[in-house]
Design brief:
binds flavin-adenine dinucleotide, nine-stranded mixed β-sheet, globular, six-stranded mixed β-sheet, alpha+beta, D-Amino Acid Oxidase, Chain A, domain 2
């Protein structure tokens, strides 16, 4: 069977993984990106990402997460790079909080190892978190911390070693359907291909064939706070955590740079942007003050003034689940976008699915919930 020639537009983590899977199956792939692999303008940067298996966003993700976990290990072995450190993961909230219930349900339905720590046990095991009366922790041992920048670079390196052509600094300004396939215009040149994979992250609406997709650009800000006792906050002693407290909600990452714990506040809002290019490069002092107050209240072992702040763009859909499938209304086009703040951990399996769709037109993974056609009403009225 002749292999198609494929263009992948966007090499954030999703496009890089799709390129890897296509190339290792012998496909001729050209992978375009406006910027360098692992850059900090989109969604796939900022030192760390959470991997977890007991999934509050929906139990039906668990088989995908298990497959993603195995593929992360495969990519590590292929490239000799450490990408995923399994330090465990905590969900911390009042015992009857919906997230505690959802994460327990997911673990129970799939028979996943997990531990529920009552208030006293939580205080004793993880004193890095200040725990109020009535709060509990659910510990997921199949969780850990991923390194986003090396992960993107490793996936692209593996793809190139398998024969793909990565084209950084190649913004795609036009992509148009032709009688035989697609014509991609970038850096003043035309590239004719049989199939296009759109993996543009938050830039989805910048490309004409994706203009009608309901993908909103939002800014997510991360803050780093210096740990007083760095040893107590390294991954060997501090799992990743998702904290839901009446005064604050955030995800929390152990010290990876030798200095600071990272938090991503959820309670301070993820504002929408017209375009990822509008991402501010300096922090709003009000935001920093509010993040400091949360940390002073709930993380007693860190100095409550950020040493670093970074803002990143991500694409969100109306139901916070990705768009993954054949591009509605077009032939020979696959779209993977709108990962809504939780796509990183799943990227290797989403890349595998992307390659399945290009090469076979279908996949054995269950992606019904991610069907881009589920918003057809919205798209028609847009
Ligand atoms: C701060 C933050 C924290 C997060 N935390 C977690 C977490 O802990 N765990 C988790 O699983 N997920 C998390 N996520 C979500 C996850 O990181 C994203 O879902 C994932 O990185 C999305 O990757 P992507 O490849 O779709 O997008 P991106 O990484 O933004 O990549 C899109 C790429 O397409 C390129 N591009 C776009 N248009 C064009 C064009 N016309 N021509 C050429 N190139 C183009 C861009 O330059 C970019 O490189 C977080 C996201 C953010 C922002």
């Amino acid at each position: 069977m002749t292999q198609p020639r494929v263009a992948v537009i966007g090499t954030g983590v999703i496009g890089a993984m799709t390129t890897w899977h296509l190339a290792r199956r012998g496909t001729d792939v050209l992978a375009f990106d406006t910027y360098s692999p692992g850059h900090d303008r989109g969604a796939s940067a900022g030192e760390s990402r959470i991997f977890r298996t007991a999934y509050k966003e929906g139990s039906n993700y668990v088989p995908l997460l298990r497959r993603a976990g195995r593929l992360w290990r495969e990519l590590e072995q292929t490239t000799g790079t450490e990408l995923l450190m399994m330090c465990g993961g905590l969900t911390i909230a009042a015992a009857d909080h919906p997230d505690i219930r959802a994460v327990r349900r997911s673990a129970e339905e799939h028979d996943l190892d997990h531990e529920v720590l009552d208030t006293a046990a939580a205080r004793e095991r993880f004193p890095q978190h200040r725990i109020d009366d009535g709060e509990v922790m659910v510990l997921d041992p199949a969780a850990g911390v991923l390194r986003p920048e090396p992960a993107v670079q490793a996936a692209l390196r593996a793809a190139e070693e398998a024969g793909a052509t990565a084209l950084p600094y190649h913004p795609v300004d036009e992509v148009a359907e032709t009688a035989e396939g697609w014509r991609v215009r970038s850096a003043g040149k035309h590239f004719d291909v049989d199939h296009v994979v759109f993996a543009p992250g938050p830039w989805a609406r910048g490309l004409e064939p994706l203009r009608a997709l309901p993908v909103e650009v939002r800014m997510i800000t991360a803050c780093w706070f210096a740990a007083r006792d760095t040893a107590a906050h390294r991954p060997q002693r501090l799992p990743i955590a998702i904290r839901r407290h009446p005064e604050a909600a955030f995800s929390c990452f152990p010290v990876l740079d030798g200095v600071a714990v990272k938090i991503v506040p959820h309670h301070l809002g993820w504002p929408t942007l017209d375009d990822p290019a509008a991402l501010p490069r300096s922090a709003d002092p009000e935001f920093a003050r509010a993040a400091s107050a949360a940390v002073a209240r709930l993380l007693p072992g860190v100095t409550p003034h950020p040493v670093r702040i970074g803002a990143f763009a991500e694409g969100f859909t109306p139901d916070d689940h990705a768009l993954l499938g054949p591009l509605p209304g077009h032939r020979n086009a696959t779209v993977l976008t709108g990962f809504s703040g939780h796509g990183f951990k799943l990227a290797p399996v989403f890349g595998e699915i992307g390659a399945d769709l290009v090469l076979r037109g279908s996949t054995e993974h269950d992606i019904t919930r991610l069907d881009p056609n589920r918003f057809s009403e919205l798209v028609r009225t847009a």
